[in-house]
Each structure stands twice: as structure tokens, then as C-alpha cells.
Amino acid sequence: MRIVFSGASPLTIITAKTLIKQGHEVVIIEVNKEKIDQTCDELDCSFLHGDSARPAVLSQVDPKNSDILFCLTNSDQINIITSLLGRSMGFKRVITSIEDTDLEQLCRELGLEDTIIPVWTMSRHLDNMIRGLDNINLSTLLKEDARFFTFTAGEEDAI
């Protein structure tokens, strides 16, 4: 798959490393040239210096031949604008990250279905931990593509 990231955030770097290791083609768009210079030696991917919220910049990564656009900058507004632009330019899937929970409804109204809110994700994980739902650290047991899912079924779920 060809995957494009908007912003060279810590989440981008960690995710890009994983995806590159799995054989995906990765492109990172970053407005800060110094950040590109600091990061380019640790990642075997392409970098584009520019503002991903600008059509002229985003079009340079060939949206119609790219599978996913991750919008992971430190700015909710840039992430939302880039997501809308990316969707209109032909990315097959657009994933938007926002920090401000008040913007979730706006993202829904704009049709940004794949919106992640990291603080809520972490909050759910911590809640699961204190309730004992995540009491085994499986990261040492499972590697690469393995996934572990749990769920609780009540009597009302019986067939």
C-alpha cells in the first residue's frame, strides 16, 4: 500500500517505521524542514517539504494512486482541512486525528468518518486496565500482524 502522512509527529514516526517494516511505501509531508532533516536518516521513506493543507503541495504525492492519508499534525484545523482536501483529491481513505473533543461533531458533519481522538483512546485503555480488562501484557507474546481482541457477552446477547 502507498500511505501518506501529513505531519512528522511522534505518532507518525512510530507508525511509519512499522508500516515500512511491513513493506508499505510511505511518504511524509512536513512543513518544518529541520524536522525532515532530523528524521530522514531514521526512516526509509520519501519526504515532501510543504504545507499539506495547500492543494499544490498535497497534489504532489499523487492522491489517486495513494491508499491512505493520515492527518497527524499537531493542529486540529490543519488536520481537518487536509482531510477534506485529501478526500476531494482522491485518496481512497482519509484518517483524521484531533485533540479537541469539541470538534468531533464537526468532523462527523463533514463526513470525516475515520476520526481518531487520542485522548479518548488512551482514556478507554486506562479504564480497561483498572477494570482488569487488559490485565495481561500481550505485546511480549504477540508480534507483527497478530491481534488479540476481547469482548464481554451478556445474557441479552445469547442466540
Structural summary, described in words:
With 159 residues, the chain is of the alpha/beta class. The chain has helices spanning 10-21, 33-39, 55-58, 76-89, 104-109, 118-130, and strands at residues 2-6, 25-30, 46-49, 68-71, 93-97, 115-116. It has a single domain, classed as NAD(P)-binding Rossmann-like Domain (Rossmann fold), CATH 3.40.50.720. It contains six helices and six strands; from the N terminus they run βαβαβαβαβαβα. It is globular and about 55 Å long. The model is unreliable at 138-142 (pLDDT under 50). InterPro entries: NAD(P)-bd_dom_sf, RCK_N, Trk_Ktr_HKT_K-transport. Residues 1-117 form the RCK N-terminal domain.
Give a short account of the largest sheet.
Answer: 6 strands, parallel
Secondary structure: helix percent: 25-40%
β content, as a range? 15-25%
Helix and strand run: EHEHEHEHEHEH
Tally the structural domains: 1
Low-confidence stretches: 138-142
Shape designation = globular
CATH architecture identity: 3-Layer(aba) Sandwich
Number of helices: 6
Number of beta strands: 6
